[in-house]
Amino acid sequence: MSEESKGKSWSFPSTYTILVIALIFVAGLTYIIPAGSYDYQDPMGQIIPAEEASLMSADERKALKLSPIAGTFTRMESRGQIKHLPMAPIKGFADSVEVATFVLFIGGFLGVIAKTRAIDVGIASLMTRMRSRLYLLMAMLISIFSLGGMSYGMGEETIAFYPILLPMMVAAGFDVMAAAAVILLGAGTGVLTSVLNPFATGVASDLAGVSIGDGMPFRLVQWALFAFFTMFYVIRYAKRTQKSPMLSVTHDLNPEINAEILANHQEHAEKLTLRQTLVLITFIATFGVMVFSLLPFSDWNENLASLELGWYFPELAALFLSSSILVGFLAGFNERDIAGSFVAGAKDVLGVVLVLVLSRGLKVVMEEGMIIDSILAFSEQAVQGLPQVVYINVVYFLHIILSIFIPSTSGLAGLSMPIMAPLADIAGVSKSLVITAYQSASGLVNMVSPTSGILMGALMVSKIPYDRFIKFVWKYIATLFVATMVLLTLGVLLGVG
């Protein structure tokens, strides 16, 4: 064996590889698992027999809002899918074109925003102005980063803020862990709740056949509670370690860490320009319109039905495309700058689109092989008689385990939602609550997983050993774990849907 071979170490497959393997595996299952279908029921109570339902596509069932009727599974002739496997991703792309366009356009929008540097300069300017009121600054920054996480999955972008915040707080006598936690836990909590995150909630909602706005009020409550707790946890730690430095989880390393952080510190005196201010206003307004367009006003009060826009992925894609052009104009960009930054931003999320295509292809194989309902029938036996409260927490635990092996939120949605979403109908639990369980589990695991590039990059910039971070964060993670279980339980009891 060569030295080169000896030096190679096994690494866990990428999300794309996992999905391709899953495609082949599921195609093989179409020859093993008996094909079949449930009878379905529409919202008016009309029954669609299994024979008729089996001829419908998933999109047709989704449009008619059909739900499987427990105990009505009927076996049918098997439809092996190996020979159709090469076409599965192609059909998956055709089926996911609306959500894929939305993801590409929001990526393009974020690319144009990034080129203006409005967010970077705005947050840096806020840090400079608030340096004499650091506790208030910590609360404000946790709010801002969590808003970014819950609205568009803010993650890698946060790395740029560590070199600004860390020296400022360390110079003021704060612990480096407290400074890093403002950004790391702030954005992480936002991603965990993912109220409107297109790369988590959007992907899962599309695969589950529900609107991205379904369950949004419930997730907003979850975000507010978790963001407030994050402020409490981080600021409490900051106060304790400032008063008694020996309570710091890195107290023996702080002299070396602080010296290195302060040695590399450079003042950031850049201020927001008028153009950047207008860009920030447009950025906030765009997400504000998105939130408003998805609010289910008619569910709250019939008199508010006229306010409901009923937008879905095509309208949201048009919103972000229009806003991209407006932002480019406000920033003073020429046509090449706007187009170039938009395309660059779209390239950054191309991986998410590929995950979408492969995930949809997986669903296509199961649908055309008619094994989704068969798997549901087997699963129905497992959940039969299981209380809804127990079911939703089992779903949560299952996604915790899956998230350890599949750190990609969109990849996890692609593997789990084709089964978990229709199974929710059988269990009598809303699909939106299942989506909340999935993204809460994924977000929680990714906040501590050593396979998370964002986490390990943040710790590297902050000079914090991974084991010390775990020592600091384990009580926080345990609290969010239990709090999520409580909220999911309340969601079932309150009939969140």
Automatic annotation (TrEMBL):
Question: Is Nucleotide-binding set as a keyword in this record?
Answer: no
Q: TM segments?
A: 12-33, 93-113, 134-153, 159-177, 182-200, 220-238, 278-297, 309-331, 389-407, 444-461, 473-496
One CC-aspect GO term: plasma membrane
Could you tell me where this protein is found in the cell? Cell membrane
Q: Transmembrane helix among the record's keywords? A: yes
Question: Which keywords appear in this protein's UniProt record, sorted alphabetically?
Answer: Cell membrane, Membrane, Transmembrane, Transmembrane helix
Q: What is an example of a Pfam family matching this protein?
A: DcuC
Record membrane topology: Multi-pass membrane protein
Report the leader peptide range.
none
Main localization of the protein described in the UniProt heading: membrane
Name of the protein in question: YfcC family protein
UniProt organism field: Entomospira culicis
**What are the leading ranks of the lineage?**
Bacteria, Pseudomonadati, Spirochaetota, Spirochaetia, Spirochaetales
